[in-house]
Specification:
Largest sheet: 8 strands, mixed
Order of helices and strands: EEEHEHEHEHEHHEEHHEEHH
Mean pLDDT: 95
CATH class: Alpha Beta
Radius of gyration: 17 Å
CATH superfamily: Alpha/Beta hydrolase fold, catalytic domain
CATH architecture: 3-Layer(aba) Sandwich
Low-confidence stretches: none
Number of helices: 10
CATH topology: Rossmann fold
Length: 275
């Protein structure tokens, strides 16, 4: 595995001789959460982006507007010289991957969108979401082990595969003196969510230009206007119908955290989309 730098972004590379895959993670996460999926794709040349403000990427960005993440993924794809890659994106990463495919179409041959936060058009002029609880996340930890032990019994982490939870903690902390700090500071994560309802986050115009075969895995746990639930889906149920070449896979009984709970499903779908 290699750590690359594309401007202020950290890009992890898992070398392989097969077709490329570019992974983009969810809000508050990091690229190393794909480790347990990539290890079952040894014949693929895989890359994972730490999105701006996350993981080992820079934190001092002027904007965390949703469109910026897609522009970043497009920039990374161009800098890497990707051609005919499978783009895999979860949540915010799904939104970013679609926009990247619209901006750099030659870089992608197909897309796998895992409960992407792409809402119906009428949702992009709503009141900002109250995510004050995110800003109150515990930011400092004595050790990776302390974080693992604390989170493994708390929802939503209690339903995650334990090795993936460990990766989340191990690579989601950065040394800070005798302690560790969250690699995505709570104030940055909390600043991202309220922007998802703004008109700028609506990529409807770009969706209709994405010709690549696309599979949308959609959680059966639906988010409601009354409650902001990180384990629920904000994906437009009609998203596949708004794209030229997309199929919808509705996963009843699955939460928003599909890659953390069912990594083998993601491996299977990657192989289906990129034989």
């Amino acid at each position: 595995m290699h750590l690359l730098r594309v401007n202020e972004l950290a890009v992890w590379e898992w070398p392989g001789s097969g077709p490329p895959i570019l992974f983009a993670h969810a809000t508050g996460f990091h690229a190393r959460l794909w480790d347990r999926i990539v290890e079952h794709l040894p014949d693929r040349h895989c890359f994972g982006v730490d999105l701006r403000g996350h993981g080992w990427s820079g934190k001092d960005f002027e904007s965390y507007a949703w469109r910026r993440f897609g522009e970043d993924v497009a920039m990374v794809a161009k800098a890497l010289g990707l051609r005919d890659a499978l783009g895999v994106g979860h949540s915010l990463g799904g939104h970013a991957t679609v926009l990247a495919a619209a901006l750099e179409p030659a870089a992608f041959s197909s897309l796998l969108l895992i409960d992407p936060v792409i809402q119906s058009p009428d949702r992009y002029n709503c009141a900002p979401t109250d995510v004050s609880f995110v800003a109150r996340r515990r930011a400092r930890w004595k050790s990776v082990e302390e974080m693992v032990e604390r989170l493994r019994i708390k929802p939503p982490f209690s339903t995650w595969k334990q090795d993936i939870l460990r990766d989340y903690c191990e690579y989601g902390l950065l040394p800070d003196g005798d302690e560790f700090m969250l690699a995505c500071p709570p104030e940055i994560e909390a600043s991202i969510y309220p922007l998802w309802n703004l008109p700028e986050a609506d990529i409807s115009a770009e969706l209709v230009t994405v010709q690549q075969p696309t599979m949308i895995l959609r959680s059966g746990k639906l988010m409601t206007a009354e409650k902001f639930d990180l384990s629920a889906s904000a994906t437009d149920p009609n998203l596949a119908g708004r794209m030229p070449n997309a199929q919808d896979v509705y996963l009843e009984g699955y939460s928003h955290f599909i890659p953390m709970e069912y990594p083998s499903l993601i491996v299977d779908k990657c192989r289906f989309m990129q034989p």
